[in-house]
## 1
Amino acid sequence: MIADFLVYGIINTLCVVLISPLFVSMIKKVKAWSQGRQGPSVFQTYYTLAKLLKKEVIYSPNASWIMRITPWACIAAVLVASLFVPLVFVTEPFGGIGNIILFLYLLVLARFFMALGGLDAGSAFGGMGSSREMSISAVIEPTTIIVFAALAFVFKSLNIFDMVAVSAAAGIPVSPTLILIGISLFIILIVETSRLPVDNPETHLELTMIHEGMILEQSGRNLALMELTAAIKQTLLMALLINLLVPWGLATTLSFAAVAVAIGLFAVKGVILSLVIGLFESSMAKMRFFRLPSLFMMAFFFSTLTIIIEVFA
Amino acid sequence: MTDPAFFDGIIKILFVCVIITAAYIITTKNLISLVRVYALQSLTLVLIALALYWYEGTGILLFIALITLVFKVIVIPYFIATVQEKIRIKRDIEFHFLSPTSSLLISLALMLIIYIALSRILGDTLAKGSIGSPFFFGAVIGISLVLMGMMVTFSRKKAITKVLGYLSMENGVLLFGLFATELPFIIEFLIIIDLVILILLTTILTVGIDSTLEEYHNRLHRFYLWEEQEESP
């Protein structure tokens, strides 16, 4: 039991760390294709991270200890959160891990430190990015909670492990209302990973940047950690969407063959989802800041509707 | 005859599709996709009617599916699309009273109210245990669709989107008719004929409702709605 969980932890963490950069560069590649460019290689994010890890870290003279612990706090929070989402292999949850509310708060903890780090260096861009990020997260938070509450209603459980186990046993989406939740989760994925209608991940234009503004002062190894944090967060949300909506192929017993197949399938499904995200992003223009709540409202509408349908129908 | 659980699943998926299209009709600003989504919503109704036929085996449902397919999926959207192409309006970004976001919130509240109201009204007439069945929920979604269509009708400014709101209301009536009561076929047919006439009239009036009769003819020419050559005097 405990041994199983240890193995699960090792496999899951390795998977999430190794596969996250692939999805990031896959999305970049798709966007480049849709613009008629060739784009960087799909391994580019790995090279970038490796190079950044070797570089020297420089702190602003105004920076305090917050700047120094921010990258570590962020990566620690998302790595613990990554244990909550079974990517390729579901086991019995151990010691209360998998609670959906704790999962959300771990993600918020990473975001909190990121915003503090943006403010800490004293640069104007960092402050702007942090304040925007905090406003957006204040608006998206109720929606996120409702979406996950809808998930809990559909699966009758607050534990992500139970949810994934149920849907892995079924092999198909367990309830038609999951289509509605899928739309909501997709919107949350777009917002949380600061993608196009909300924030442009490719620009350093001061008027629009949110996420990039906050990590502008990070350098070297710390920057690599921050980039990896963002990538892992994206993979986690993608994994939730994938493993709840198209769960077939997920390993439920610990055998080498099953896990290997599950890893392969997960990579394929993730790449397909990255394709969808990339195409979605290419087809959108950035929204004006005050128009964003109408996007969140879509997610809110669909997830509330799910709860209504689950309770009444 | 057929497996009820499977039927339930299919019907639920179709309900979800209807709701998604309704939400899209409320929020979108692009007229071309509005018409396409309306056609999609009607197609979903066709599928629901077919699923019901497969479950119940009443022949009249086949006819309803057929005329819905012919008129609401093909004829009416085609007609509106051609008119739209001619008057060259692509987007409707003006709203009265309600922004799309608040319309969505209100439609949620409406659904809840309708559910409570219907469970009181139909609770006595329907057999015990039927609340919570797809038939009851279909009636709820039908009436919600009517009210959501009404919201589209009064919150949009352009006449052509008002018409689409009205059409979506009619879809709601059909859905309610399919699930709650046995709507006589002749009435459904008459409604469709009415709709076609209404579309014809409104698309013509959209161009010229604020003009005099003399000016109206000129406008028809200006928007290329009247292709016939002028006779030389």
## 2
Amino acid sequence: MREPLLALGILVLVGATLWLWLASRQSRARRAGAPDLVETYHARGAGALVLAFTTPDCVPCKTVQRPALEALEQQYPGRIVIGEVDALIEPQLAARFGILTVPSTVVIGPAGDVRAINNGTATAERLATQVGLNGQPGDIGV
Amino acid sequence: MAQSSVVDQTAIKFAQTVITIWILVAGALAAPWLVAFLAAALATSAGSPSRSLFRLLYERAAVPLGIVRPRVIPDDPAPHRFAQGVGAAFLALSTLALFVGASTLGWVLAGLVAALALLNVVVGFCAGCFVYYQLSRRGWLPRRTQGA
């Protein structure tokens, strides 16, 4: 029984270290903000800009993340600008937000404030909450 | 990806949940044979999905009992089978380590499989996608142009 507990301890320690490292990277990206991207994607008048990082080979980007983003757009027409970014073509942009995997999404407010960085798939509800629009969930369904 | 390919996302999450619980139970009971059994089940699932134990549990128990609801979407099943194969390989190594006396290493490997499965269920972080992206980023995999 001692070895499984030791193994669990090792995994928790490694996991906590990785989490702290990731959190510090994301914290730097949040502090820096992204007003330049709000201009680039013409998102000043919208509620938020959602950058969706993808690659050509990423299956869940197309089958899970994209439908969630489309549902979000339908639910809140005109209030969200979605920018799809190929992380392999724009590695500097991916590095700026500490993107570790695809799909990943970054939620940026109209003033350029980085509200959330999601490594992995994010549901429409989760994104809506991060954007600050989650008054009426229910029929998003993704 | 073939146009007709579909994948039940709930079935995938169900399998990952079963894997996580199974490994936790194996660790709590300090029972290496449970890890060996899971390695074989995962290998079977990757090699022959129609004979998958997880699929059997899902289709014969979880769905009829109303515990979960299927969510079938167009998707390529190949990466999911590949991920199961990788999981099976890790668990096979874990089993080997457990039976030759390197117990801590064995449980770390098994725990890693459980942790990655749990991470995908809870926060949608796909370990296979992570590895694939990191390899592509470093130019170690051939690059494709953007598709549909």
## 3
Amino acid sequence: MSKNLSQLARRQGIDNTLFQQLVFSDSVNSGLVNVDIDNSADVVKQQRKVLAKKFLMGEAVVHGAASFYDFIDDGTNEHNANKKAYVCNGSSCLCANTQATVKEVLVAQFGSQNVGHVTCLGRCAENGAFQINGNNYSGSDITKVKQITDQSSTASNESFQVQTTLAEPILTAKITDVAKYYQLFDELSKQFVTKNELEHLLDKLVESGLRGRGGAGFPTGVKWRSCLEELGFNEQSEKYIVCNADEGDAGAFSDRYLLEHRPHAVLFGMLMAGLLTGAKTGVLYIRAEYPEAIKQTKQAISEFDQLILNKTILSDFRFKIIKGAGAYICGEETALLRSIEGQRPVVSVRPPFPTQSGLFGCPTVVNNVETFGSIHFIFSELNSEQNSGVSKYKALGNGKSTGSKLVSLDGAFVHPGIIEVAMGTRLTTIIELAGGFVKGIKALHIGGPLGGVVPLCEIEKLTIDFESFSDNGFLLGHASIIGIPQSMKMIDYIAHLFEFTALESCGKCYPCQIGSVRGQEMFEQAITGKQSINPELLSDLLETMQLGSLCALGGGVPLPINNILTYFENEVAPYFLSKKSTATGEQ
Amino acid sequence: MSLASQEQVQHAFLNGVSYPIEQGESILTFSRRSNTEHVVPTLCDDSRLEPYGSCRVCCVDVALVAEGSRKVMASCHTPINHGMHIFTHSARIEKLRKNIIELVLSDLPPHTLPVQQSTSNTEFEQVVLATGVSEVRFTQGRQSVATVPLTFNQKGEASLCDESHPYMRMDLSLCIDCNRCVRACDEIQGEQVLSVAGRGFDTRIIKGQDVSFNDSDCVSCGACAQTCPTGAISDVFRQQLTKVQRSDQLSKDQYSKDQYLEEQRSTIQTPIEKIRTICSYCGVGCNLEVSVQNNKILSIEAPKEAAVNSGHTCLKGRYAWRFYDHKDRLDSPLVKIDGKLTKVSWDYAFEYVAKRLTSIKSKHGSDAIAGISSARCTNEENFLMQKMMRVVIGTNNIDCCARVCHSPTAYGMQKSFGTGAATNSIDDIKQTEFILLIGANPTAAHPVTGAKIKQKVMKGTPLIVIDPIKTELARFANWHIQLRPGTNVAVLNMMAYFIISEGLIDQTFINERTEEYQSYCQAIMALNIDNLANIAGVDKNLVKQAAVAYAKANNAMSFHGLGVTEHSQGSRAIMCIADLVLLTGNIGRQGVGMNPLRGQNNVQGAADMGCQPHQGAGYFSVEDTDSITYYQQHYQITKNSLVNLSQWPTTVGYKIPEMFNAALSGDLKALWILGEDVVQTDPNQHHVVASLANLDLLIVQEIFLSETAKMADVVLPGTTFLEKNGTFTNGERRVQKVNAAVKPRTGCKTDGDIIVEMMNALGFPQAPYDAESMLEEISQVVPFFSGITWKNLGENGLQWPVEKNGVDTKILHINTFKRGLGKFHFYEFEESREILENKSEFPFILTTSRNLEHYNAGTMTRRTSNESLVSEDVLLVNPQDASSKGIINKSKVRLYSARGEITLTAQISDKVKKGVLFTTFHFPELMINRVTGDVTDKHTKCPEYKVVAVAIEKT
């Protein structure tokens, strides 16, 4: 990251970010029909020159940032941006084996040069996912591509189940009266004013045991407290609350569910974070692949603003949506912050942590959608001994992992969708509730591309909580579950994971930047029969990525690969040089 | 925590041994500082840049207790903590490093795997060898260089290597994506010409919007080339140096040791020497490291540990040095015989000059002779020059180019504070919380200081720029007060008014450390602010906001340049700045003060050494009886000496403009000019030429046949800074050692030698020039040099005053001003005579300045590839003016004033306001000084270059 660029971006503020100008000037460009290619590239160049001057940054900065994203066009036709249709190539759709047909239909309709690719539209419950004109489709929608194209029927037929095992749902609870929902904030903000009083509330949050739902599981109260402490408790100091809604993990769609169906729960959590840290601005970074989530969140923000206008609640907190542009790494919090600032979204070193120096160099809380979604429940009935949200929340789970968790179930399940369970719920219970699998499954990929690959034989051991997964050599992550069918060759799945990492690596650290490509090549060469895999070299590579990578992408992908190598040794063995021949140096 | 426990030394363990730690340092810094044996290798680290953490080669094992579990962490960005155990070379760490390097090598051409240790290894190769990687086990796969587009060189040939630029080179086949170049461009130079395109494996370094170096906005500072660990970004000279080193190495490898030594003896393979010296381009005083072989310069870099420039410099210091052996160099003394400059021997030249001077002196008296010394020359040479004029000739007619640049600064700051020099150090920029920049364009004229200011401002330090031009820093300013040229006093008085009226003065400071506040305050408060705003053409609310912000800042530092001094009210504007400093108490501590950005490399030194008509070496008055005695004693002049007391000069001599007037009127007969092209650079050229033509004897000591030298009766070939020893004093009073990198060009003598031999020819026994002994002589005369010796200057020099014990001074006026109390001066704005007399006929105001690529008369820079970067002076014209005059971009315009006219190319630009024109003065073909006027600063006679009444029309 560049301190200079962060501070130059800060001068323009959150309402005028270089990144959003790039994203939206791009859609302006896409309106330039019938402009020949050279000319449109020149238009883009000229626009970027103007932007660079306005932001007092070098033209290289603007060009470099724009070139990072899948959906920011450079005016040439070689880019993945501004395609008429996109095919989802996420792991779930891959496992569902639906995409060959989808692509065929779309290519027939639009021509191959007009069909792009996108990694996970979050339509994992139905699969067969694709996008046309900025709208997402899945399942049977592919049969009506013609109607979608001629605009006669543009609605998606999407449907998935939402269930819960909880007597009193937390995240899946319906919000019927929005004004009433925010009354809690009004009460708390009047009751807790001084720093001491706010610290008391933070103590309560810590007591609830809430841990970040983005995957790392860091205690939320501790994070918020460090942001409160930063720069002192000062009305004037500039701080930010950022909601990480860049749910890029293939197989996961629980954040999408919350933003589309429970946006006020998320906004409320951010609002409380603002109160407890002294921040006045909440930024939701929502990925471009989730158009409906952006739409619903926008709607919710205008409802919130109306409550302020009506003086139903008193607050000077304001929300801002930042629309992503297609880059998995933006789900990493420092890359996300750089993305908003208009820098290249590469991972920054820590320290400083975002709570010390985050967005525009200001103290910033970054939390996942689901984390914010639990806040209302936790702070409700605060003064009740028995019935307070805090005590009910911490009563769920194993003491270390508390509260509830949303689990995303993909199309491999009989009843795919979202299920809210108490932490500590057995994995087998969830599978039973989902009605089992629609086809033969040999493993579950849980927690996104960097989560573990759990063979069926290990399923019995697992409960939904951070500890159970890590103790057994897996990762809870975002708790998304993809069923890997019997028909999927594990050697192909490893190649897919390496390919994904190579495509999405920010390119900053060598272990991930180069290692992912070399890994992909090793497996491709083995699959095509050109060269068997040297197990020692692969082991060195995986160790290098795991120990050496700067962030969880390069550092995390060795986990599922190692799981497969361990549990499916026999299946992949033919692709490896035998141990004996490597020892003697033969091939 | 008790005081005792706070003071307990915090420590950590490095490979089992305990070492003290420093607050906030990284594990890498700790390990490097503590033990130099177990070196942690790195690729992406450059200590001058923010920790980046991309190469991961610096990973170490970290445990919180001795036998505790270990975690792999990147040492460059992980802070060291009390009690940590660091293992830099555990088995798994060594394996990790090796595997990472192997990955890097897998994306490089096979030849980049180095075979063995050698002095010519790149930083990358050294790391590869240190980690012990000897093979790449991966089968040849994708190479990221495959996605790099080709660029076209100057001949139009497509190539993977970018050879489009006169200096910069890029070959991405060698790039390891460490991004040090990108970060140096951003974090050191602040230009952001470099960035990265794409993501993942295919990321690659780009310039601008993926254009060639030549088409980019690159300012050729070379920071990227200097930090690149592989040579992927380089420059023409560095490439040449590498080539020489490699062939040197090759010969070592090919021959047996004896043969090699034999060759060494036969001097075919002379080793490359590195000589540290000081740049002669501006007052920043960058340290340079010159690589020399066989008396030839191969390349120039900036030493990383230099206090002034920490491994950074600009394209002039780093690349514009080829003038030193240019074919145009003078190589023999010339004497005008039968109206033609004719080559003569040195003996003849000295004898001729001695005869002519002696005769003029006996016929017309000592004061018929004058000298102009050079701020390009060393302190020692300047000292000798004024000594020759005063002691041997017997006149105070000695001046230097400070006259035409910062004489008002020296004068004004002496009046206000007592010392006419920068009050603080450039390094204070790190500490300051507010910057006030007036009439200066440091990113062009003082690039390293400019870059430091820009870094600070980009990171959020508030900046006021008072300048008629929208300079690079004005773009970044919070308040750009774009005043009409010549109205500094009006705007500075407005600022004072608002500071006082808003109750933001530092009353305690004013009470304790200043005088004349009451009368000053009364005068300021009586001003008509609306009227002043109108005169200056500025928004009074903007001035108010700026003034309030400045006064409220805890530590505000001011910088100014020739945009303040080169005016009819130059000295007064200086005192107005000093008034603001005194009003707000911004003086006498770190991060504050008033800091002139001195123009030439040694202009501070030239004045310190006494090259002024009213003050001798060390600033004693030439008219004061005590100081006359002081000088006579120190120069050991007695009744009986060759030069005796009776001819000692006791009156103030001519300032430069007065010299020209005296020459024209016939009072001045002989003029000796050392290294200055007055014909091209002094205002009102017709007047200067006529004056010089009227002299009986014009002696010019030069390295090229300049416009002035062409008029001379005698031309003496001197030497460049690369060929001489001595000291330069930079703009922050830092006296630094200049070391000769090469021998003087055949036929030339160092300027010190020339003056010494001339003194001897005139009958004064001056010992042969030697930097060390000259410095000793100076330290006996100049009190603030008393503690300076050649030896104790060390590599980074000392800032005067230097006490006898060698302690130097970073900040002046800490407890008391040199003159006792700081003095307020009130001056009312006065319109320049130039405007009053010429406004109706010549309604535009022309203001002139330097650009980044060239230096003053361009004598040096035009004889380098900088010429191809910028090859003409252009005239900036506001779009409105251009349209009303029918001028189109890049068309020729006629520019004329009451003195003369020139024709030049117009560039339509919003950097100038309506009614204002701007150009540079580097090209003799143009001779901008044909149009400049002869109004000067009332107090110092500094010419008003910055305000010229002109008219324009399209041709």
## 4
Amino acid sequence: METQMETQFAMNTFVKETGGYVASQLEACTRCGICAEACHFYQATSNPEFAPVWKIELLKRAYEQRFTLTGKAKLALGIDKPITDADLHHFSKIVYEACTMCNKCSMVCPMGIQLGPLIHEVRTAFSEACVVPDDLMAAVNKQVKEGSPLGVTDDVYADRMEWVADEWEVELPMDVKGADTLVVFSSIEVMKFPENIAAIAKILHAAGEKWTLSQKGREVVNFGFYEGSPERTKLFISRVFDAAKELGVKKIVVTECGHAYDALRWTSYNIMDVPEGIEITHIVGLIGEYVRSGKIKLKEGAYNNGTLTFHDACKIQRRGGHIQEPREILNIIALESFKEMTPNREESICCGGGGGVIAIKEADPIRYAAFELKIDQMMKVGAKMVVMGCSNCRLQFTDCVQHFNLDVKVAGLSQMVADALEE
Amino acid sequence: MPAFTITPVEKGILRCHHTGPFSHEDVRPLAGFLHDYRGKLLIDLRGSRIEEFARNIREFQPMMPTTAIFGAKIDPVLLKIPESYYTHEVCFFETEEEALTWLRNQ
């Protein structure tokens, strides 16, 4: 009986989500398969099940069997099979472990189908049916209970911030009412890359920004978004919005995290009331603005030694459009050493660790396989250093550079900017 | 005098020997080293006083690679951080031999 319940929950969600927009997207697909060639997991493994169009197969089948005459007839005649619990479990592995929601597939679709958001709808149905990988759900539950998927509780956050302030000798303003800008870090930065906190603080102070951190709105990562649960996505976003409203800020700056930026900047508008008059931006965009306006000055050629390349993060560059800013910055601080990988900008290949994939142990083999595409790209330009503006990508690069024993340094853009600030 | 020295033990393992109190000039390069280092780490606390390293060993732990620590009594609470997908195993041992044996098997 329990297994039938799973399918029922998933089917209800599929049906609930299938409005005119989703139906038109599903009807528009010609099964041309071009999306497969855009998917890094398909490219790396040639597994046809990793083709983006296959990842929405259950949504398509549910739509046809519930809403189309042909689908109903095929089901009645036994030509098509009804969706089963076994299908849910099988596809759960595919949509959570072999998809980073990078949305490159949507860019190449000749019919303009938004495959990424459709795959997200499938994740939503799986979330309702409770067929989400255990590792991912463990992180989600931790974020519900402790406020952070990486265990950054109130105490850990306060302790960590005090350590960074002491050892990097930076001021980290906390809960300052009347500040213009609320800066929200990801727990990956707090735990794994604490010098990013110091670097961003240094940049903000140099630019004369009136900013603050918030104890309450301390976590920008959103594992509810990875899971596909609108309720939990909303819960985690609301912690940040509530903090922003209480502090009366005009701007929220998402630091080096891509999916958090998507959740806060765009997804929020589709699932909840977003506080009016608060701009949401990404640290890469903000630093770019500081450089363009002359609020900060950077040392020319500070990183001119050894070839350096830039990894475009899916949610910051492709989705967020912050494509020029990092290039303008690197063309100042690394004019002679900066080389582009191919493809780049909005056509960049995902690192393979986004969308919650890096948190799922069972996904490690395909995560590493997908990263081999990045290795090829880096090797072709002879990169000795790779820079990015997303700490989740940075975690994936750091882990994979170790896994493949590569002689490549991995760096965050903010940290490089902070180290290249003119006094 | 720097708070630590880093020397090779064998292929894939470096020793980080704590030698005195940490200053800012020690913490920042150590953070940089932990980000760039790709191997395993042997932390040698012989001759150290707990008050000299307690705070930093706790704060550095989330950034550590697979690490074996020996040479001084450590409160296990110091090494307790939330388990997560990004962390590596960090264990305490009574002797250098035990620490190295464990590290070689990781």
